[in-house]
Amino acid sequence: MQHELITDATLVSNYIKGDERAIEILINRHKQRVYSFIYSKVFDRDVAEDIFQDTFIKVIKTLKLGKYNEEGKFLPWVMRISHNLVIDFFRKNNRMPKFSNTGDFNIFSVLSDSSLDAEKSIIKNQVEKDVRRVIEELPDDQKEVLIMRMYNDMSFKEISEKTGVSINTALGRMRYALINMRKIIDKHNIVLTN
């Protein structure tokens, strides 16, 4: 029987029964999806690789201990594990603010607008407390837009409605906020790790 035709559930059950090859097939089957998800959060190949390895170590341990719930789908379960490990990574590195309004706050959500792609490197992998310090130095109108976008995950349409300015003005303020952050980071010699 070809590997593609074997369901995840069958492979999981075969692995639990002692078929070591089954876990290899499962890892290869979902590798791209899980790794891409992790990388999209941490923007660092080495870190993504580590978290990816840790995810499957945890998967293997849980399966070996017989604690896997068959009713759950395998991939969403693996994604949840990797998501939790990403959050742990940010917490350990003090790079994640403790906001109660969302469980999976993502510092990079600010960069999800395609118009801001060029500025990705500004905030990428920046230590959270440095980012906060830098934000404090921004002019109020730029700081307001940045915080609404980054911490409240508001769309530019929502920001425009809340602040009473056009979407273009809100986008412009965001762009200037990022440019100014770059200058402040340079001024303070804050190291941006790649």
Sequence stretches where pLDDT stays below 50 over 5 or more residues: 97-126
Helix content: 55-70%
CATH topology of the largest domain, by name, is: Rna Polymerase Sigma Factor, Chain: A
Give the end-to-end Cα distance, rounded to a whole number of Å: 44 Å
The helix/strand order is: HHHHHHHHH
Q: What value does the Rg take, in angstroms?
A: 21 Å
Strand content: under 5%
CATH architecture term of the largest domain: Orthogonal Bundle
Task: Give a brief description.
With 194 residues, the protein is an all-alpha fold.
Keywords:
Arc Repressor Mutant, subunit A, elongated, 194 residues
Give the secondary structure arrangement, pairings included.
Elements: H1 8-16, H2 20-42, H3 45-64, H4 74-92, H5 120-123, H6 128-136, H7 140-150, H8 156-163, H9 167-187
How would you describe the overall organization of this protein?
The structure is a single chain. With 194 residues, the chain is an all-alpha fold. The chain folds into two domains: 3-92, Orthogonal Bundle (Rna Polymerase Sigma Factor, Chain: A), CATH 1.10.1740.10; 107-187, Orthogonal Bundle (Arc Repressor Mutant, subunit A), CATH 1.10.10. The protein contains nine helices and no strands. The chain has helices spanning 8-16, 20-42, 45-64, 74-92, 120-123, 128-136, 140-150, 156-163, 167-187. The longest helix has 23 residues, at 20-42. It starts with 7 loop residues before the first helix and ends in a 7-residue tail after the last helix.
